[in-house]
Design a protein that fits this description.
- The complex is a heterodimer of chains A (103) and B (192).
- Chain A is mainly α and 103 residues long.
- Chain A has one domain.
- Chain A is built from five helices and three strands; from the N terminus they run βαβααβαα.
- In chain A, 48% of the residues are buried.
- With 192 residues, chain B is of the alpha/beta class.
- Chain B has a seven-stranded mixed β-sheet, sandwiched between helices.
- In chain B, α1 crosses α5.
- Chain B is globular.
- Chain B starts with 14 loop residues before the first strand and ends in a 5-residue tail after the last helix.
- The chains are: A mainly alpha (103), B alpha/beta (192).
């Protein structure tokens, strides 16, 4: 097993890296079809790590390994959730409550 | 560093709010996640976190706006599933501890895991035909810290489930505003 020093949070948002030459993604020798499938899933908007795993039917460990490769090659960016104390300050929670009421 | 994170949920940078639903077996965790969000099963196996094969978590998402998602994770945290609990609670906004008045003892493990560490509410799932108890009596039976909200709910009902989550978010907002910042770093556990 590879050692990884990045353990992406389950709720971290995965986005295609800005400026990544998306037309060429997957053309590299070591990006496999599962890597490109993960990137494709994030193309329209950022997706949480957990959602990528659940949707693809992959384990969380497998998706994290794929993301590690994608971040290393500069194809993807992973945004961890902000510390909750900062979410309170940023008034994000009011938006969450509104979304829950509307759900 | 707090300053480096301040804009993490601002416009342009995608963000997420993490909410955990826990409690004893058969108490309604999956039902709650499924009535409020889009339910999916998450296979948690990961050698790097120590969560073993065969561990699953209920996952639901609620789109808040473009770039902001609320993620619900439903799982039991008893029975030595410490790695799982740590993983789910890292950077979580708060926790719903679901309880069944017939088996309040099942809720102790969950309360112990989160009390003092993360904001939480106890939501008593009122199963049909089961005698109702006053929230104050339940708070005493669970030996909850003063101010911990105890709610009566029916997780099969969408509005009731939504109300539980709204009350949690409101409680969490107050809790985090009062919490010393050091507390948030404890929960950062596996966060990157």
């Amino acid at each position: 097993m590879r050692q990884r020093d990045r353990v992406f949070d389950l709720a971290a948002q995965v986005a295609v890296a800005p400026g990544a030459r998306t037309a060429e993604l997957g053309a590299g020798e070591w990006l496999g079809p599962r890597h490109t499938a993960v990137l494709d899933a994030c193309r329209v908007s950022a997706r949480p790590v957990a959602e990528l795993a659940a949707e693809a039917g992959l384990t969380v460990g497998t998706v994290r390994a794929l993301l590690d490769d994608l971040v290393t090659c500069g194809c993807a960016v992973v945004h961890p959730p902000a510390p909750p104390a900062d979410q309170v300050g940023a008034r994000v929670l009011g938006e969450v409550i509104d979304a829950l009421r509307a759900a | 560093m707090r300053s480096g994170r301040r804009d993490a949920d601002g416009a342009g940078t995608p963000g997420a709010v993490k909410i955990v639903v826990t409690g004893g077996p058969g108490v309604g965790k999956t039902t709650l996640v499924g009535t409020v969000g889009e339910l999916r099963t998450l296979r948690m196996e990961d050698p790097s976190t120590g969560v073993p094969a065969g561990t699953t978590v209920d996952f639901g998402r609620i789109a808040v706006r473009r770039g902001l998602t609320a993620c619900l994770f439903g799982a039991s945290m008893s029975g030595g599933a410490e790695e799982l609990g740590n993983e789910l609670c890292a950077r979580a906004l708060g926790v719903v501890v679901l309880a069944d008045v017939r088996r309040l003892g099942d809720s102790f493990a969950a309360v112990d895991h989160v009390e003092g560490r993360l904001p939480f509410v106890v939501a008593v799932n009122c199963f049909p035909g089961v005698e109702r108890h006053a929230p104050l009596d339940i708070a005493r039976a669970l030996d909850l810290v003063d101010g911990t909200p105890v709610l009566l709910c029916d997780v099969r009902d969408r509005d009731s489930g939504k109300e539980v989550l709204i009350r949690l978010v409101e409680h969490a907002a107050r809790w985090w505003e009062q919490a010393p910042y050091a507390v948030t770093d404890v929960t950062a556990g596996t966060g990157v």
